[in-house]
């Protein structure tokens, strides 16, 4: 006998940084509270992060004991348990190779509805995200840098950030977009900032957590880090996982996918 109640799978890039993992655990609690009564599972999408966590003798995520598994591993478990309906929500910022891997993953006997990444090349959610992060911009004597991930070879990843960059140029002269990969790059942005005009730099991470990139490239204690090049005290604003308005976008995406599964089930039953 199969179990038709949908399972919610959060498909996340993942992180090995302790503070970032704590942010994700808080987010997990928010998902479980919002979707009480549903089974909420997590799948990590990057093999090297799974290997790192296992090497550190971590076999579970969160205090509730969610097993560390790949998306393939989660699909296999769900099928063995007789599950049939699944919502897979990509906990991703932009579309690209990682999200493609989620959509193209073989699903076996499972019926899947997908929640998309937060941003896409069509501009979905860009304005909402800008409204959500703008309260964290620095004040009059502070320079703000929005930190995007982007991609050096997949233009889909960069389009929403370019749209944000144009908005900043028009409305926030002391705020700049700067990308880990792609353009505008640190070499394009940082030399143009006159640090003598500001008392502090505020970094706004346009990422699920302020993990490896922020810690090891943006605010690292090294001559090549962004903060070292600016020679300013710094503050790191909350990441997406800590901003309720952004989390709400993911909630609504899951709710919409659950609705599509429900409607699809009615169609199938009606067809019989």
Helix-strand layout with pairing:
Blueprint: E1 7-12, H1 18-34, E2 39-44, H2 47-55, E3 60-61, E4 66-67, H3 71-80, E5 85-91, H4 97-104, E6 111-115, H5 126-133, E7 142-148, H6 155-171, E8 175-179, H7 186-189, E9 200-205, H8 212-218, H9 226-230, E10 234-236, H10 244-271
Structure, explained:
With 272 residues, the chain is α/β, with parallel strands linked by helices. The protein folds into 2 domains: 7-117 and 242-271, Rossmann fold (3-Layer(aba) Sandwich), CATH 3.40.50.1400; 126-238, Rossmann fold, CATH 3.40.50.1400. The protein has helices at residues 18-34, 47-55, 71-80, 97-104, 126-133, 155-171, 186-189, 212-218, 226-230, 244-271, and strands spanning 7-12, 39-44, 60-61, 66-67, 85-91, 111-115, 142-148, 175-179, 200-205, 234-236. The protein has a 4-stranded parallel beta sheet, with helices on both faces. Helix 4 (97-104) links the parallel strand 5 and strand 6. Residues 267-272 have low confidence and may be disordered.
Task: List descriptors.
10 helices; 4-stranded parallel β-sheet; globular; alpha/beta; Rossmann fold; 272 residues; 2 domains; 10 strands; disordered C terminus
